[in-house]
Design brief:
It is built from 2 helices and 9 strands. By secondary structure, it is of the alpha+beta class. The longest helix has 25 residues. The relative contact order is 0.22.
Length: about 120
């Protein structure tokens, strides 16, 4: 069982997650996150409610109560955090800035004069 205490930590494990059959994952304080079943079947328990997700289905966490995920079969899932879009935009902006800096350095290289 894995306990994750913060949505920020979820970002590090957001996609491409695999959960073997009968394994559990416990999430804490994940209000606003969406759990998506990419493959297999997941059984979620939250706020005294049981939800079964099939491939292609997702569920939005509406409270900060503990969410327990059990894999009914070998499953792949994605945890979409409430910060996912902002992180993706930031990642894209950094990539553009990095490429712009690389091009600028390449352009300025011929202008440098050897020191005498």
């Amino acid at each position: 069982m894995v306990a994750i205490e913060s949505p920020v930590l979820l970002e590090a494990i957001m996609s491409g997650n695999h959960l073997l059959q009968d394994h559990l994952l416990t999430l804490e304080q994940v209000r606003g996150c969406r759990i998506e079943c990419n493959e297999g079947r997941l059984w979620l328990t939250a706020d005294g409610e049981d939800i079964v997700l099939e491939q292609g289905e997702s569920w939005l966490v509406a409270s900060d109560q503990r969410v327990v995920i059990e894999s009914l079969t070998d499953s792949h899932y994605t945890l979409h955090t409430r910060y996912a879009e902002q992180f993706e935009l930031l990642r894209h902006t950094i990539s553009i800035l990095h490429e712009s800096w690389r091009q600028l350095r390449h352009t300025l290289t011929p202008l440098r004069r050897p020191a005498h």
